[in-house]
Amino acid sequence: MKLDRTHDPELKCWVESAAGSDFPIQNLPYGIFKRRGKKEKPRGGVAIGDQIFDLAALGIDTGPNLNKLAGAGRPAWKALRKRVSKFLSLKNYKKNLVKHLVPMKKAELLLPVAIGDYSDFFTGIHHATNMGRMFRPDNPLLPNYKWVPIGYHGRASSIVISGTPVRRPQGQTKLSEQPSFGPSRRVDYEVELGFVIGPGNPLGKSISIEDAEKHIFGVVLLNDWSARDIQSWEYQPLGPFLAKSFATTISPWIVTLEALAPFRCPAFPREPGDPRPLPYLFDEMNEKAGGYDITLEMHLRAHGMREPMRLSRASFRDSYWTPAQMVAHQTSNGCNLQPGDLLGSGTISGAEPGSAGSLMELSQAGKTPLELPNGEKRSFLGDGDEVIERGRCSREGYAPIGFGYYLQYAQGLQPCPLCMVQRGFFFLMLFFFAAGALHGRGALFYGGLVFLSAAGGAATASRQVWLQSLPPDKVPQCGPDLSFMLDNFPLSRTLEKLFYGSGECAVVDWTFLGLSIAGWSLVCFVGFGLYALWLAWSGRRRSASAAASP
C-alpha cells in the first residue's frame, strides 16, 4: 500500500484540536453519530481532533451505518480520504465547512456498522502460551496452533459500542461435585483488535491471501468480555458459548488501513523449527509487511481511584497470524464474508512483564491478585470496575495516530445507588407536601421536611450534573445496589460508593432548553426547596400573628 500526501507529517488542519490528538488529519477514521438531545437520524462522520466532521457536508448520505461505504472498495475509500483531507487542510474551505463540525462531547457515538457475523481468532501467541501454560505446563501450545489460524464463530447480536454497561453474566459453574447457577465470579476482559470487513465474497468462492487486504475496511479496538468460571465448565468439547456471548465491546471509530499504512511491519518472525505456512496462507509481501505495529493498553479504575491504573501494554506486531491470513483462512472453505462483518484478533499479549492482555494472565488465574492504588486487590473484575482500552501508532518520520480511549465497565445486576437515592428524595418531598396539604396545619414542620428532602435531592442532582460535565475517561462508575453494600461493606465504604455515583448518571440522553434531565431535576429540587422555605416562613408569621391577636 503506497503512501500519498494524506500521510504527510507536515500536513496541517484548520481544526485546532487535531494536532497532537489521536485524530490528526493523517488519521481520518469513520464512525456513526447523532447529536445528543436532537431528533435526527444517525449518519456518518470523520473524527478530527475533538470534533466530528459531518460527511453530509460533502453530499454523502451513509445512512445509519457504514456498510455501504465499507462495501465500496479500496478505490472509493482512497478517493474519499483524499477529498476529506483536502477540505480539512485548506483554510479557504473553513468558512463554509466549520458549521458542519460537531463537538464529540455533544454527540452520541453509535455502532459504526451493522455487524452480520463475528468470528474471533486466537492469533496472540504469547496469550496462547500463557493460557496453555496454566493447564499444560509442559506443552502449552497445542499441535495445530502454528499451522492453523484458530478461531470460532461468535455472537454478533451482543456486540455493543464503547460505554455500554456490561452486566455481570449468570451461568453454570462447577466449584464442587455439583454444578450451580448464578453470577460469574471471574469476569475478565481481553485486549483485542477488530477487523471490519469491506467488500464480501460469493458463497463458495475463497479470497486469496494476495487479495485479502482489499476486503478489510479498517480496524477498531475490541474487548471480548469473558466469564472464566463459566467458560471452564462449558467449553469442552465445542468451545466457548455463554462465557463469551454476553457482550463484546468495540470502539466507535474505524481506523482505515490507509491511515495505518505508515505503521506496517513484517509478519511475526517464526522460530527456526516452526512450520512454513501452507500455500494458501503464504505470500512474500505478507511476510515482509503484513503486520501492523499498533500499541494496545488496558487501564483499570476502581472506586476510590482518581486516575486509572495501567495494567498492560503490548503490540499487535506480536500476533502470530496477520489480518490477511485471517481473511484467507476464514474464506478458504468458501465461507462468504459480507460488508460490516467483524473478525476479532484474539487477545494480544507480549513477552515482557506487564504486557499480558487479560486478568487471567496477570493474576495467574487468581493465584496472584493485583494490588490497586486504593488498597484493594483484583484477580478478576468487580462490579463497577472501569476498564479503559487505548490504541496508538507511532513511528519516526510520521504523525502518530490513535484509536481514542474507550470506556467499558462491568456492572452489577442492580441499579445505581446514586439514582435510587435521588429518586427517594423526590418521592419523600412529594409525600411531605401531600401530607402537609392534607393535614392543613404544621406548615413550619412540613415545610422543613420538604426543604430537607429537596436539599438532599439537590445535592444528588448536583452531583449528577457535575458528572455530566466531566470528560468521559474521568467519570467514576458505580457498583452494586445499596442493600448489598450495606450488607458487605463498612458504612464508610458504602457512603464513598454513593458519593462517586455512576457512569450511567453521566450519560445525557435528553436535553430541553440546554438542560439535561439531571439539570431540570436540580432546578426542580431548588425550586421546591425555596417554596418550602417560603411556606414555612409564611406559616410561622401566621402563627405569630395569631398568637399576638387579642
Helix proportion: 25-40%
Measured distance between first and last alpha carbons: 99 Å
Structural class: alpha+beta
Q: β content, as a range? A: 15-25%
How much is the radius of gyration in Å? 27 Å
Major β-sheet annotation: 8 strands, mixed
Number of strands: 28
Low-confidence stretches: 475-485, 501-510
Mean pLDDT metric: 86
CATH superfamily of the largest domain: Fumarylacetoacetase-like, C-terminal domain
CATH class of the largest domain: Alpha Beta
With helices defined by DSSP (H or I, 4 residues minimum), what is the helix count? Answer: 15
Question: Which topology of the largest domain does CATH recognise?
Answer: Fumarylacetoacetate hydrolase, domain 2
CATH architecture of the largest domain: Alpha-Beta Complex
Shape type:
globular
Structural domain count: 3
Describe what this molecule looks like in 3D.
The chain has 550 residues and is α+β, with helices and mostly antiparallel strands. It folds into 3 domains: 5-110, Roll (SH3 type barrels); 118-172 and 183-411, Fumarylacetoacetate hydrolase, domain 2; 417-544, Bromodomain-like. It contains 15 helices and 28 strands. Strands 6, 7, 8, 13, 14, 16, 17 and 22 form an 8-stranded mixed beta sheet that branches. Strands 4-3-2-1-5 form a 5-stranded antiparallel beta sheet, with no helix packed on it. A hairpin with a 5-residue loop joins strand 23 and strand 24. Helix 11 runs antiparallel to helix 12 (443-469) and helix 12 (443-469) packs antiparallel against helix 15. It is globular. It starts with 29 loop residues before the first strand and ends with a helix.
